[in-house]
Amino acid sequence: MILTNVETVPGKTIVEHYGLVQGSTIRAKHIGRDILAGLKNIVGGELKGYTELLVEARKQATERMVAQAHELGANAVINVRYSTASVAQGAAEILAYGTAVKVV
């Protein structure tokens, strides 16, 4: 599956358009990560536990979007975007979305 954040796939022609596809996941913070993040806030630096959480969430949301595109018969998703929203205290949704197409 080809994924791109632009409107076309360079060197390819769009022959079918399947519409919007999306994948999402909701992740909650872990108490251990919260404690370490609180300590890190005192001294500064990257909150690696949260970085890993977001990387995992983006990966899962992307995999779900790709699965939906595959079910439609697409071989590419163009205009891929990500969105994050807080859905509850300590929990956030990561949404991956784009347009499913077939290219040759």
Report the sheet with the most strands, covering strand number, pairing sense and barrel closure.
Answer: 4 strands, mixed
CATH superfamily: Hypothetical protein apc22750. Chain B
Give the averaged pLDDT, no decimals: 87
Strand content: 35-45%
How many H/I helices?
A: 2
Query: Could you name the CATH topology?
Result: Translation Initiation Factor IF3
CATH architecture: 2-Layer Sandwich
Number of strands: 4
Beginning-to-end CA distance, first to last residue: 12 Å
How many separate domains make up the residues?
1
Q: How are helices and strands ordered from N to C?
A: EEHHEE
Describe the 3D structure:
With 104 residues, the protein is α+β, with helices and mostly antiparallel strands. The protein has one domain: Translation Initiation Factor IF3 (2-Layer Sandwich). The chain is 37% helix and 41% strand. It contains two helices and four strands. Strand 3 (76-88) and strand 4 (91-103) form a beta hairpin. The model has no long low-confidence stretch (mean pLDDT 87).
What are the salient characteristics of this protein?
single chain, alpha+beta, 4-stranded mixed beta sheet, 2 helices, 4 strands, 41% strand
Task: Detail the topology: elements first, then pairings.
Blueprint (H helix, E strand, L loop, with lengths): L1 E2 L10 E15 L2 H13 L4 H25 L3 E13 L2 E13 L1
Parallel strand pairs: 1-3
Antiparallel strand pairs: 2-4, 3-4
What's a quick, concise take on this entry?
This protein has 104 residues and is an alpha+beta fold. It is built from 2 helices and 4 strands.
